[in-house]
Automatic annotation (TrEMBL):
Residues 50-148 form the Methyltransferase domain. GO terms for molecular function: methyltransferase activity. The keyword GTP-binding does not apply. It comes from Kribbella jejuensis. The keyword ATP-binding does not apply. One of its GO terms (biological process) is methylation. Keywords: Methyltransferase, Transferase. This is Methyltransferase family protein. It comes from the Bacteria.
Amino acid sequence: MGTGHVELARAQQERWDLAYARRPQLHGAEPSVAARRAVEVFGAAGIDDVLELGAGHGRDALFLARQGFSVHATDFSETALDQLRHEAQRAGLDDRVTAALHDVRDPLPPADRTVNAVFANLLLNMAFSPSELRSLVAEVHRVLCPGGLFVYAVWSADDPCAQQWLPLEDGLSGHDGFVGRFFDRELIDELGEDWNLDEVTPYQEGQRLMLRMTMTKSAPGT
Ligand SMILES: C[S@@+](CC[C@H](N)C(=O)[O-])C[C@H]1O[C@@H](n2cnc3c(N)ncnc32)[C@H](O)[C@@H]1O
């Protein structure tokens, strides 16, 4: 694990594990808005395999698999991943969905330039320090093939909760034991510096104002 909020990370991992244990299928069965968009974007690029980070209990991984993608889903909650595996098996999708425990503060397991698409809904807005966030995005860049795609969605700084949550260090905010970050355009542009930032789309999902980004890893000579 890199430098940064090690204690905070451990506490957040326990918090998420407990949340999934108390309420299985915490995020519901419906796919996220971002996952629906990812299907369009990845499909248009002829991609059929996806690495999902922070997959939770897998509502999006299962949706992507139903749309024909092979999905490798990771999360740092074993409880969520157990639910994901169980649901994949029940739905007969276990040949297309694999799940592995991984904390994204650690380097991503795939080798350089071996992944075509990465998807992360509501992961980058978790309790990461700015340097952990930069490392994570650099790791996604490292594992993607040239021309590979990264679709991610986060809480927007325009969400009213951004003003209501308790301000913590490093631009993080806390509420009810959860810690996260609300994203503004400056941060999105900074994280997209080594990429082609193809799409920054504000939208509403439930009560939340969100931002969805599509970024392409430049192919050499482009
Ligand atoms: C808001 S939930 C979103 C889950 C899923 N993407 C969805 O939309 O249903 C955030 C997820 O990120 C995971 N997470 C938070 N910090 C993480 C980390 N450092 N490494 C891996 N997963 C993490 C949590 O366990 C949780 O499942």
